[in-house]
Amino acid sequence: MKRGKRGRRSSPRQSLNLPDLDNAKSAVLNSLPYKESQRGYRHSIDEFINWYCSEPRLSFNRAVVTRYRIHLESRQLAPGTINGRLAAVRRLAYEAADSGLLSPDLAAGIRRVKGPKNLGIRLGNWLTAEQAKALWQVPDPNTLKGKRDRALLGVLLGCGLRRREAAELEIARIQRREDHWAIVDLVGKGRHIRTVPVPDWVKSAIDSWLVSAGLSEGRVFRCVCRAGKIWGRGVSERAVWHVVKDCAKRAGIENLAPHDLRRYARGCAAMPEGTFTISNFC
User: Fold this and answer.
1) What proportion of the chain, given as a percentage, has pLDDT over 90?
2) Over the stretch 205-228, which tens digit does the pLDDT of each residue have?
3) Ramachandran region of residue 170, left (φ > 0), alpha (ψ -120 to 50) or beta?
4) Fewer CB atoms < 10 Å away: N or C end of the chain?
5) Which range of residues forms the domain containing residue 183?
6) 3-class DSSP state for residue 234?
7) What b/e string do you get for 128-139 counting C-beta neighbours within 10 Å, with b at 16 or more?
8) Are both 61 and 179 inside the same structural domain?
9) Mapping DSSP to helix (H, G, I), strand (E, B) and coil, where does residue 187 land?
10) What residues pair up with 175 in beta bridges, in sequence order?
């Protein structure tokens, strides 16, 4: 006996339209607990959706994702960047399959798409000690905003903090431990807790800013208005980005980003004691 129309089960589709992709994208972002991960996945998924919807495609399957990988390689992106974009696409396929929007077989095929291998180590944008000194000395130490920017650049250069970590740094986290200053119990990416040593020249820049701003609790860095007064309870990650980009432009350093300052700090930490670094200038 044949089943009627009411007894038939709707099978998962082979292709996804824009509303389906948006629903799967929302499911992916809601499953990520950290803002950094949400920002990266949102950017990667949006790029894939724009590429996927640029022309009619028969199915969201392994062949289409392989073509997308070839498209990324044609843009001469780094292997790590391509692998990150593909990871977001795989996550998108998983959520679409769990929601009944995509066939589980197609999602399993997308999972088997391999990314390019990471061969060697990328050099990146490395600052020299002279460039670090020029960057740190760009802000005017005679103004309140200049003292804040010097302290912020010092935290990025000397301590290697990320943008979010610097923006959310609390005064109470800076403590004296075993005859030296450190940022204790810093909650970083992935909820990892670590203690970060603070060089003396960075601590001096922070103290100069805190004394001038009259701060003793709360977040270290605050917004400074054009009248030279502080307002608000903190700064955003975007504000940290603009400080670095503006100072880099005035120092004549091209294509500099906040993570390049973190790379410089990690490189200085790996150098033998007595090596010529920015601390020799301070």
Assistant:
1) 49
2) 999 999 999 999 999 999 999 888
3) beta
4) N
5) 129-280
6) coil
7) ebebbbbbbbbb
8) no
9) strand
10) 182
